[in-house]
Amino acid sequence: MFALVLIALSAQSLHADLIGTSVSGSLYYTYTGPAPAYGTVVSYNLYDPSSYSNAVPSIYGNYAGPNNITIGSATEFGYEDTSLLIITSDFTDSALTITETCQWAYGCGVFGDLFTFTDPAFTNLTLLSDPSNFIESYSLIGDTMTIRADSPTLYLTSRILYGTDTAVFSIDPTPSVPEPGSLVLLSTGVLATLGFARCKKSRKKTQG
Fold this sequence. Notes:
Elements: H1 2-11, E1 22-30, E2 69-70, E3 77-81, E4 85-91, E5 95-102, E6 108-110, E7 112-118, E8 125-129, E9 135-141, E10 144-149, E11 159-161, E12 163-171, H2 180-207
Antiparallel strand pairs: 1-2, 1-7, 3-4, 4-5, 5-12, 6-11, 7-10, 8-12, 9-10
Helix pairs in contact: 1-2
């Protein structure tokens, strides 16, 4: 029984988990003015505090920069447009939640948003929930996911946002490699189980 417990504990090291991995991200919006500029992606990264002054409060992980952020308990990426429009991207152990919130009673004009996130642990991206249908497309190529939301129309934003829209994605992380200590523990458990079974079998033969 003890050996089986050891095996179970060792197997936990194989559990896939994004917590503690490193992610880099960006948020660009699409210009919606007259052609031919229509549809042009604005060149600065809204998730980079150095490219858009005072738009990333210190409560977000990207406050120090948009790259190599450790996924953990805090919201990894955030952008606040004078606190009226707030866009966040929050990772958990196996999911990503993108939230757009307008705190103005008259609504916020939402531009076409382009999100990208890179983490070697990313695999198999799936959209789980999008009640407002503001996600236009998404993909995962290699270790980089690309998500487009709120595609604009000519001269106008795609819509006016009131309140909060939320989309949730499932991410199947790459299974972690067991630490050497875990491998030793697993091997010990297996050997102990085999030894117990062999001893039991030998005892039966002696009694017979």
